[in-house]
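Appendix B, example 12.
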Amino acid sequence: GGSLFLDEVTDLPPELQAGLLGQRVVFLRGRLDDALATSVTGQLVLVGHMAHGQTVDLYVDSPGGSLGAALMVYDVMHTLGGPVSTRCLGLVGGAAVRLLARGAAPSSAK
């Protein structure tokens, strides 16, 4: 299942993480580095495959970090078959601002 991408990303229980992925929700939390970017892009690809063109929600809570890591996530967001809606949770700074700005505006309907 999708849990192989989730272990180091959040402190949420795996069952909750799996449920969120099933609802097309991905969290990017923490300082952006290659490990976080690899985890988030894996989740985005998985959710994008399951979403069949529907909106994927990416929640961003990151002070920034590596520009290369941010560009990896940015590129995957751009290549998914449907829109990626971004939402700010807490603090967004540095390279993470680019990801927040790249996303589609959140919609009230799913």
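Confidence is low (pLDDT under 50) at residues 1-9. Residues 34-51 form the longest helix (18 residues).
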